[in-house]
Amino acid sequence: MRRGFKCKSASTTATKLGIKVKESWGFGQNPIEIFEATVEEKLIQPTFITEYPTEVSPLARRNDNNPFITDRFELFIGGR
């Protein structure tokens, strides 16, 4: 997560987008849900998405400079 990221504002944004936010979701789940609802299907060209929240990638290597993100990457081609 970038500096200045606020979990509450991500939750508010998710709600505005029609995403049903669960109380059990923590710091990293809201951005993933927002990404999946707004961006993922629009990735037509081969695209690498990097720096996933640690909460949703607990087995991936944590970033040396930011413990809230991982050094994980995922390739998207043609949306989902």
What does this structure look like?
It is a single chain. The model has no long low-confidence stretch (mean pLDDT 88). Strands 1-2 form a two-stranded antiparallel ribbon. Helices cover 25% and strands 10% of the residues. The longest helix is centred in the N-terminal third of the chain and has 10 residues. The chain starts with 6 loop residues before the first helix and ends with a strand. The protein has one domain. It is of the alpha+beta class and 80 residues long.
Order of helices and strands: HHEE
Give the averaged pLDDT, no decimals. 88
Continuous helix count: 2
Radius of gyration: 13 Å
Q: How many separate domains?
A: 1
Secondary structure: elements and pairs:
Elements: H1 7-16, H2 29-38, E1 47-50, E2 73-76
Antiparallel strand pairs: 1-2
Helix pairs in contact: 1-2
List the main descriptive attributes of the protein structure presented here.
2 strands; 25% helix; alpha+beta; 2 helices; two-stranded antiparallel ribbon; 80 residues
Give a quick summary of the entry.
This protein is of the alpha+beta class and 80 residues long.
